[in-house]
Amino acid sequence: MRPWSSLKRSMMIRPAFAILLLFACACYRVPDRIDPRVSYQLQDQHFQHLSGAFPPLSKEERASDWGKEYVIARAFAEELDLYRAVSTFKRAQILIEDNTPRKLEIQYDILLCFFLAKRYDEVIEAFEKSDLAHVDKSFFAYHDLLLILYESYREMDDEEKQAKIIELMEKSFPATNEELKVSTAIRQGDLAMIDEFACGFQHPSYLDNLMDCYCENKKSVATAQFLNALIPGAGYLYIGQRKSALTAFLLNGLFIAAATQFFLHKHVAAGIITTGFEAGWYFGGIYGAGEEAKYYNERLYERAASSVLNEHKLFPILMLDHAF
User: Which domains does the chain have, with CATH numbers?
Assistant: First the structure.
């Protein structure tokens, strides 16, 4: 029969061990949120089905010096040879008279080229140097211009100007504004906002499917960290990384065994050093398991979100009404 003192000591060790695990997880806790990076792949087939934003040049315009450059620039743009298109559009802009409406069209085409090339800083720079800041809804490409500016300011983290574009979009194109809100929530991985939008859709909607796909397959960051604190490597095994799990288990086991042997043979200094290394592996493994679970969730979400954004044309570039 076990002595009372031994039983009492055993009962005290178990809560202490549990507290240690919780403390370890808390100290190295990875936030259970996702920071997805969802992007689009530009396909020229999409723009081949879109009409031009502006009326074709007249015979006299095509015969002018700027008109010749403009025709060449549009040909480059239609082939998505954007660098040459911008250079040629700029040549046309230099040659055209200042008081003609066609100059605004050329300036817009330059913006569109920069936007398709994902050179958002140059979109903003070209816009601020152009006369497009003074156009209104009467400008034929006004809807697309607002989309281009919204996305460019968003990519450049200019929240103040982004908010101004949203106000203009709300006044002139409320339907597109709602699509932008949904698009932004999906691309940012704002699950609470997505769930809120889903409540306003007819069920089941693509937003419900997105949330179900993610929530059913995601991994718990807290669980990954706790398992790795309990048994080194178990957190990696939980998220499907068998090689990392085996490596973590063997390394921690090796250092623990080595430290134990050092202390048993009274090599205290060596035991302390080895224990220090083991602590680094142990706590690093807890943090690493949480990071890998977060990374797993982000990749899972990105695949599902990318499919939804492309299928329902929720990327701003896919909302454009016109091409070149």
Answer: 44-172 (1.25.40.10), 207-313 (no CATH)
